[in-house]
Amino acid sequence: MGRPDPNIKYAVLAHLKEHHPGMCRHWFDDIEPLEIAGGTLRLLVRENVQLNYLRRCCTDQFQDAAQAATNRLLAVKFVGEADLASGQPSHSRSAREHPPLHDGAALSPALDDEMILSPDYSFENFIVGPDNRLAHAAAVAVAHSPGRAYNPFFIHAGVGLGKTHLLHAICQNTMRRAPAMRIYYTSCDGFMTRFLESVQAGRMSRFRHRFRNVDLLVVDDIHDLSKRDRTQEEFFHTFNSLYQAGRQIVLSSDAPPNEIPDLEERLVSRFNCGLVARIDRPCYETRVEIVKSKAALRTITLPDDVASYIAARIDSNIRELEGAITKIQSISAVRDAPIDLEIAKEAIGEQTTHNPSQHPTIQQIIDAITKFYDVKLTDLLSKRRHKSIALPRQIGMWLARKHTRYSLEEIGGYFGGRDHTTVMHAIKAVNTRRHDDPTLDHDMSRLEQQLATRPAPPTAQPTAAL
User: Fold this and answer.
1) What pTM did the predictor assign?
2) 3-class secondary structure, 3
3) Is 3.40.50.150 the CATH number for 110-279?
4) Residue 103 predicted with pLDDT over 80
5) 269 neighbors 130 (Cβ within 8 angstroms)
6) Are strands 40-44 and 216-220 parallel, antiparallel or unpaired?
7) Quick check: 275 pLDDT over 50?
8) Closest Cα to residue 50, out of 76, 20, 80, 21?
9) Alpha-carbon distance 249 to 271, whole Å?
10) CA-CA 20 to 30 A from 381: which of 188, 200, 326, 370?
11) Segment 209-236, tens digit of pLDDT
12) β pairing state of 105-106 and 101-102
């Protein structure tokens, strides 16, 4: 039939945004319709990681969108530039079913069957802050000079703080810089599963060739080796083989090597012989930038006060920040309304029913402070120390300490990721100034009265944003 109408692309993307908003990404705009032939719409994707991701994760959704956009029973096949160069027909199967070969190894990373690199997890999309700066810098160095910069490179952090993001970014950056490199990315569970299957099938030589004949081995969640004696023995020899050959090894874990329970001492010493980098929970400013980045990646328009609110309310890990964005997006889509602060509060749980006689929440205290002193939420939670911002912030901490059961550390977390000593200083400063300043004492009494007589949340339509 030839080249399709260019408007088909925009119709397909519009359908995806309406019916599958959670999967939409800004780079979908780079996909090019090639032709409709034999009942199949062929779509060109120039970036290999994006191509493999779409083939593995998005074919059904794009097929549904293509059929809706054309009112025809079409199949969808994603093709890459290599398919065009070879003149071979495209297939929508996974990359492992038809890898381009180079001296017996795939040009693109050899991935565990259950794993796939996410285009979201690139260095460009990684927000750098004081809590992850070392890990990020080392990851970039490893990707630029595998086997020479830091080997092994060991990242450890709590759940959802960016370990996997950096591992994916290393693989993607290495692929672009050195496409002929043999890369293997897997989870520790994937390594163990393949090991046990190979033992049972009597194919250990094939298993060892798979893992020891690579230039870059990346293993996520290596702490799962705990108490796995036979697998630890095999990984020990795999590690030695790669390390002695100058091949790069990258590992991630929930704990540093010496804190992984029941891990053999010889493995602990080898994991520690390179660079061990820790990622801590992101501070408030970093969380704000993470929220904005995640929203932009999903083509979501997020007001600054909403980004600040999400970052202030959620400080546990990045996955929960992403979950909040997804929920806010869903509520906005259902109501066909733009995202605002009230939708954000409802999504994260602020619109639950409260008894006015109960103690106020920290968020209600923050809302009262921003309204009473006419300051922006972003300024209140920022590092700014101007008197017009610092005093309301200190009063907010004082009120939170008096009227909630949160610890000093938790209060500091809500007020821009500050530590407990800052909260203690704020409480002491407010007590001193309130004693000497009748105007301040009067203002604080008014604030406490407002919090004590705050109205119950609406049961029907939400009120206008503060």
Assistant:
1) 0.69
2) coil
3) no
4) no
5) no
6) unpaired
7) yes
8) 80
9) 10
10) 326
11) 999 999 999 999 999 998 888 999 999 9
12) antiparallel
Q: Which CATH number applies to 284-348: 1.10.8.60, 3.90.190.20, 3.60.110.10, 3.80.30.20?
A: 1.10.8.60
Residue whose structure tokens are 């400013």: 285
Which residue is listed with tokens 């029913």? 353
Domain 362-452 sits in CATH 1.10.1750.10: yes
Distances (CA, A) of 242 to 47, 61, 65, 211: 29, 40, 45, 9
| Strand locations in 210-315 (E) | 216-220, 248-253, 275-279
The CATH number of 7-97, from 3.40.50.300, 3.30.70.270, 3.30.300.180, 3.40.50.2000, is 3.30.300.180
Helices (H), 178-316: 188-201, 204-212, 229-244, 265-271, 284-297, 304-313
Most confident range, picked from 56-65, 358-367, 444-453: 56-65
What are the DSSP calls for 142-162, one per residue?
HHHSTTTSSSSEEEEESTTSS
Distance CA 399, CA 53 (A): 49
Question: Per residue in 11-36, pLDDT tens?
Answer: 999 999 888 888 889 889 889 998 88
